[in-house]
Specification:
single chain, Beta-lactamase, four-stranded mixed sheet, three-stranded antiparallel sheet
Length: 272
């Protein structure tokens, strides 16, 4: 599924230094936006598109076009597969937990997985660095055949780990080389949960998403206050012109960022 995103600016036309002429707000008509998105999707040749527009906190329109896969129409309830971004979150969380003394990077995973091959040699740091040596389950023939035969099947972590280790084979002895492995990441997630007694959702909410959103709201409040346009200010998502009757000066305002929403769409908000 492809995302077609638009960032809308509220910009006053500058006619002379220290002078601005207010321009009306951008077209927020849902029907007109649908035409624009459909045209953009057709031009880009996308299979599917999810699109949303909000003005401040008011939803203007959300929509989905095309098929997410064969015979499955895209809907605004669908989620985006974020892929490798999840590993960045996990490694950040791991280091935060290590600072909190809730887990050590030098712990052997035999504490939680005593029956895994070479578990007494594999340290937590090896999982996050992909130097543990476990075979990537996505390369195992049986897994590939099952995935093709049942594309909507959900696998448990235990099932995925078993595809990798069931023959007691490894890519290399722990710590002697490096090779990307989804298995390492699955095991790491389980190790973190078993070491802390909390789910990944609980840990992410407490350590990353909760503090991030509190900071984001604070930054957003500051930006809105500092970049609000007035009689002497021209505002866009990237630049504000501020000044007094004697002249104007440039004030940099942060560009918009896209925040993922629970329904898989994305919202344009100012960055900090």
């Amino acid at each position: 599924m492809c995302l077609l995103g638009f960032s809308l600016c509220f910009l006053e036309a500058q006619t002379a230094i220290g002078q601005t002429v207010l321009r009306s707000a951008p077209n927020a008509d849902p029907d007109r936006l649908r035409v624009i998105v459909e045209a953009g999707a057709k031009k880009a040749g996308t299979n599917a598109v999810e699109f949303g527009m909000w003005v401040n906190d008011r939803k203007v329109v959300t929509m989905a076009l095309g098929n997410s896969m064969t015979t499955v129409p895209a809907t605004t309830d669908m989620h985006y597969r974020i892929g490798g971004i999840a590993e960045t979150f996990m490694s950040t969380l791991l280091l935060m937990l290590a600072e909190q003394k809730r887990i050590s990077l030098d712990d052997r995973i035999s504490r939680w997985f005593p029956h895994l091959p070479a578990a007494d040699q594999v340290m937590v740091r090896m999982l996050v660095a992909n130097t543990a040596g476990y075979i990537d389950y996505v390369t195992v023939d049986d897994f590939l055949k099952m995935q093709l035969a049942e594309p909507f099947r959900t696998f448990t972590d235990e099932e995925l780990i078993n595809y990798s280790v069931r023959d007691d084979k490894m890519n290399f002895p722990p710590g002697t080389s490096q090779q990307y492995s989804h298995t390492d990441n699955i095991i790491l997630g389980q190790v973190i949960q078993r070491a802390t007694g909390q789910s990944m959702k609980e840990l992410y909410d407490k350590n990353i998403f909760g503090p991030m959103m509190r900071s984001f709201r604070s930054i957003r409040k500051f930006r809105v206050q500092s970049c609000m346009h007035s009689r002497w200010t021209a505002r866009s998502t990237s630049i504000a012109l501020t000044g007094t009757r004697s002249g104007a000066r440039r004030q940099d305002c942060p560009p918009p960022i896209f925040m993922p929403l629970a329904n898989g769409a994305r919202s344009s908000e100012p960055a900090g």
